[in-house]
Design goal:
This protein has 209 residues and is of the alpha+beta class. The chain has one domain: Jelly Rolls. It is 24% helix and 26% strand. It has six helices and twelve strands. It has an eight-stranded antiparallel sheet. A four-stranded antiparallel sheet has the order 5-10-7-8. This is Aspartyl/asparaginy/proline hydroxylase domain-containing protein.
């Protein structure tokens, strides 16, 4: 469900890249409307700075959709599953703050992690600071993603055991409680629909710490 990764990125370089092209992204529309989450997604061919990470992590043979995700302070993402059974690799690109994700009510802080966000109900709880991550949304089975990362020595097994001791025997599947989110297409219909109006993000309103 969750594994820490032994992987570091040039955070400043990635933040600069985000700001160089953030206007290509879109708000996501919430129900009720809340403009709190901005995303910039990439279609192939990826920008070189993104492709280099895909290759370095051994993900080039997988169905990968990279994106930057910026979440405003004091905002919360409600319980949901990511659509299409996505597996997420999340990389923190902020210097002085640590993001976290709540999986079945348990908080997992991370710098770099692989998370089964398509099969485990999760939230992103409100904090007082902004969050910016580079996420790789992968439409492949969790086991295939795990094996690709493990073959590169990127699964931090020692750190993962501290918070998720059964990670090596984990089976990716929905529980009956979680299955309702999939049946109702909860994420598609209630949480993350692209705002096709193209609302603009005002960079001057966002301050990195």
């Amino acid at each position: 469900v969750f594994c820490h990764l032994n992987y570091q990125v040039n955070k400043k370089q990635l933040r600069d890249h985000f700001w160089s092209g953030y206007e290509k992204g879109r708000w996501h529309r919430f129900v009720p409307p809340q403009m709190i989450w901005w995303k910039w997604t990439f279609d192939p061919p990826f920008d070189p700075i993104i492709q280099d990470i895909v290759d370095d992590m051994g993900l080039s043979g997988l169905n990968v959709k990279p994106r930057y995700s910026y979440q405003f302070p004091n905002s919360r993402l409600a319980e949901h599953l990511d659509f299409d059974g996505l597996i997420g690799i999340n990389l923190n690109i902020m210097e002085d703050t640590t993001p976290d994700i709540h999986l079945r009510g348990v908080c997992f802080p991370y710098e770099a992690a692989v998370v089964d966000v398509g099969h485990v109900v999760h939230t992103v709880e409100s904090v007082s600071y902004e969050r910016l991550i580079l996420k790789f949304a992968i439409r492949d089975p969790y086991s295939k993603v795990y094996d690709a990362l493990d073959s590169k020595g990127l699964i931090d097994k020692e750190e993962t055991r501290k918070c998720n001791p059964d990670f090596e025997t984990y089976v990716s599947e929905n529980t009956p409680t979680e299955d309702k989110y999939r049946k109702n297409k909860y994420l598609r219909n209630q949480l993350l629909q692209y705002d096709r109006q193209g609302n603009s993000l005002n960079k001057s309103e966002i301050k990195f710490r």
